[in-house]
């Protein structure tokens, strides 16, 4: 017998849950689009599904179904039966687009990322990094053993830095400094943008040899190669001395508190009087904010990033209090936290020597 007194489930609630259930399928749809070069093959105009299929070496009917799914996700537009164009969001899947996220899509839909997520419940129970158990080594050691994946990962990190690189040079007073070292700076995307906007600055990009692989090209493209040097090394051992500003973007969240504090301590060791450490990372609120719109979406992604750190790396996203703690352990004092709206959900955290 049906219980007529039971409360009805709000259809919008069911829709929300359904969207979340299908989230992994949507991600794999993007992965297929990038691997099949859909955005490149369609280009700036309108293309028939048959032509896209031929260019991709795919069957026409399944390609049509993929293109319609991409249209349903807002990445393509279907103008008539079987004729498609790329939306502005879909254009970001083209590796040739200046703001492309193609490498980011490839990396974050790779089994090397997604397999550990199948063991999220185990990581929640134990606090252990699932990646290490699945692959028999830690994430960065695995990358070092697979050069092509490492190169793709470094490219993805450069793409993920695009919005911050556009906003940071004008969101912080770099003019009061002489030299900036970007610790864990990868391909130099962030520092190149800062140096291009501030001709009086010199800089250093510090990362592993693999991480610096694309940096010379990035610096040349921005015309700052004469004012920036590359220093390969391990920030768990030391960071280069000689700068009065040390910049870390999306570095600390990769590591647990003790290792994050160790990185900051090496920056503290070489910090001259009046020097600063500038951290660029999301800052979680003390309580999850339940609002709607773009800000809520940014925060939702940050909490997923926190879980990604749990299962794949052992790091974490942090609240202001968490950052104050790791800075204190390193002999630093956090003096300000400034949101970076143009590159949400990032904030600028400025620290000085105690």
UniProtKB/TrEMBL annotation:
Q: Which residues form the O-methyltransferase C-terminal domain?
A: 117-332
Tell me where in this chain the O-methyltransferase dimerisation domain is found: 19-93
Biological process GO annotation list?
methylation
The UniProt record lists the keyword Methyltransferase: yes
Catalytic residues (positions): 253 (proton acceptor)
**Keywords, alphabetical:** Methyltransferase, S-adenosyl-L-methionine, Transferase
Supply one GO molecular-function term.
Answer: protein dimerization activity
Domain of life, source organism: Bacteria
The record lists the membrane-crossing segments as none
* Name of the featured protein: SAM-dependent methyltransferase
Species in which this protein is naturally found: Streptomyces griseomycini
């Amino acid at each position: 017998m049906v219980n007529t007194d039971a409360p009805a489930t709000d259809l919008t609630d069911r829709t929300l849950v359904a969207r979340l259930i299908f989230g992994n399928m949507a991600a794999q749809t993007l992965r297929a689009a990038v691997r099949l070069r859909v955005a490149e093959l369609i280009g700036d105009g309108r293309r028939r599904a048959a032509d896209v299929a031929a260019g991709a070496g795919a069957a026409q009917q399944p390609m049509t179904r993929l293109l319609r799914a991409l249209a349903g996700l807002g990445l393509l537009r279907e103008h008539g039966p079987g004729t498609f164009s790329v939306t502005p969001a879909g254009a970001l899947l083209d590796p040739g687009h200046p703001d492309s996220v193609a490498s980011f899509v490839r990396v974050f839909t790779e089994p090397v990322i997604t397999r550990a997520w199948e063991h999220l419940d185990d990581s929640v129970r134990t606090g252990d990094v699932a990646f290490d158990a699945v692959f028999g080594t830690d994430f960065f050691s695995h990358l070092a053993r697979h050069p092509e994946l490492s190169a793709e990962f470094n490219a993805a990190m450069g793409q993920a830095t695009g919005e911050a690189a556009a906003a940071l040079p004008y969101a912080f007073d770099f003019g009061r400094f002489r030299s900036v070292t970007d610790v864990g700076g990868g391909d130099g995307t962030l520092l190149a943008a800062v140096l291009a906007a501030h001709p009086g600055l010199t800089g250093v990009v510090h990362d592993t040899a693999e991480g610096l692989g694309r940096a010379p090209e990035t610096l040349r493209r921005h015309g700052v190669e004469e004012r920036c040097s590359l220093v390969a090394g391990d920030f768990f051992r030391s960071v280069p001395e000689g700068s009065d500003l040390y910049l870390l973007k999306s570095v600390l969240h990769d590591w647990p508190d003790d290792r994050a504090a160790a990185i900051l301590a090496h920056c503290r060791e070489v910090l001259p009087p009046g020097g600063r450490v500038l951290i660029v990372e999301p800052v979680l609120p003390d309580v999850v904010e339940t609002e709607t719109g773009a800000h809520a979406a940014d925060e939702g992604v940050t909490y997923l990033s926190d879980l990604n750190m749990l299962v794949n790396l052992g790091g974490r996203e942090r609240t202001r209090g968490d950052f104050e703690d790791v800075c204190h352990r390193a002999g630093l004092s956090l003096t300000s936290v400034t949101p970076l709206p143009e590159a949400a959900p990032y904030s600028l955290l400025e620290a000085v020597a105690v």
